[in-house]
Amino acid sequence: MQKIRAIIIREHGDPQAVAKLETINLPSPTVGEVRVRVKFAPINPADINVLEGKYPIRPELPGTPGVEGVGVVEECGADVNAFAPGDVVLLPHRFGTWREAGNAHASELVKIRPDVPLEQAAMLHINPATALVMLREFVTLQPGEWIVQNAANSAVGRCVIRLARHFGWRTVNVVRRPELVDELKAAGADAVLVEGEKLSAEIKSVTGGEPVRLALNAVGGDSATRIAGALVPGGTIATYGAMARQPLKIPNGQLIFQDIAWRGFWITRWYQRAGKSAAAELLGELASLAARGVIFTPVEAVYPLDQIAAALAHAQRPQRAGKILLLCSDS
Length: 331
Fold this sequence. Notes:
7-stranded mixed beta sheet
């Protein structure tokens, strides 16, 4: 038994008020378990929703938040042969990563190559995974095909740009602020448009009338309707977020006459459906892409666990230039 520090929530509410650093007991790993020293864990919008009690999946209270992170194996229990101390591993979805260390069953861990920067490895499980699976899940894209997305400056949106460029697809990227246009073009975007009433026509103009079969929506409301309006008959729009906090507005004509498919996507459900083997394969591919610099998520600030309130306040600021990470352990 050892003492570790962890962020604990005992009730839902204001994130900065309910997230507290506590010292707890950590037992030795049992049969089939691995003790992992957590290195970095991001603060995602889903984590904020968990603290507020608004996320569909909540940890039992009292519990430790954190839906993704990276760590290093410290100790293996009996009958663990696939891991050894020093291995770098991605932590399972319900591990509760905002802690110094923890035990997990070996079957739930994914070992990754050691040349992946730890800060980048900590962020592979949600946003890059969401981007890559959506690019493959709904439409079999051919080289040179166009994809359209809103919220293009978000973490997922930036991953879509990088992955599309790597795999030979072209992107039309919609943003709400003109100052983001040059930034995203420098990051590899083929075209960047500012949200507006004529968006559907502008998308068709920049693509030269070439067919667009896939749209990715993280905004909702009018924005989703506009990017769906640029799709060819039989195209698909996948919704994975609702930043505008407005319901989807689906014109009857898009369904009846154009047969546009409106789909939803949640990476948590994909992991549940795909199973451990497929998840490990996906994360291994993402780790390889991160090691080669294909995937790169900007980090705006890193906070130690004892500055959790400041970290949460920073994570909730609008118009950030990167993710907020927790440095869970520097040993």
